[in-house]
Write a structure and sequence with these properties.
Order of helices and strands: HHHHHEE
Radius of gyration: 23 Å
Number of helices: 5
Oligomer: single chain
Strand order of the largest sheet: 1-2
Shape: elongated
Keywords: Membrane, Transmembrane, Transmembrane helix
Helix content: 40-55%
Strand content: under 5%
């Protein structure tokens, strides 16, 4: 049934994540898709036949496999939620250490510090200390 397939395509993680976004926020995704599509068409439809390579030749298979892996990786990067800073890391900007370090994991010390090397990295938007990247 065509309508069932159409409805299932509208429920993919990428579509659900991007359905309420403006065109300005979608433009990087469209640009990457256009560049990747142009590279694929140029290589597979024009270069490979001109160079005398067949559809299942080594260069063709390597390129197509690499292209599929890159497309899947890009999809996962766009569709996956990046997560958030844990609530246990909330604190006031003046505090020296996150409560998580003091209470839950006394042995855990984040490696990344601010530019001066003394202060912990702090997110003013979420009002939490930033974990290591």
């Amino acid at each position: 049934d065509v309508e069932a397939v159409h409805a299932s395509l509208l429920q993919t993680p990428l579509v659900l994540r991007l359905q309420d976004q403006s065109l300005m926020k979608l433009s990087p995704i469209l640009l990457v898709g256009t560049v990747m599509g142009t590279l694929y068409v140029s290589f597979v439809w024009f270069y490979l036949p001109a160079a005398g390579f067949g559809v299942f030749s080594v260069p063709s298979v390597v390129f197509k496999a690499t292209f599929v892996l890159a497309a899947c990786s890009y999809h996962q990067g766009v569709a996956t939620d990046p997560g958030a800073i844990p609530d246990a890391w909330s604190a006031e900007p003046g505090e020296e250490r996150p409560a998580l370090v003091l209470a839950d994991h006394p042995d855990f010390l984040p490696l990344e510090r601010k530019g001066d090397g003394v202060c912990w990295r702090y997110c003013r938007k979420e009002e939490k200390f930033k974990p290591d990247r």
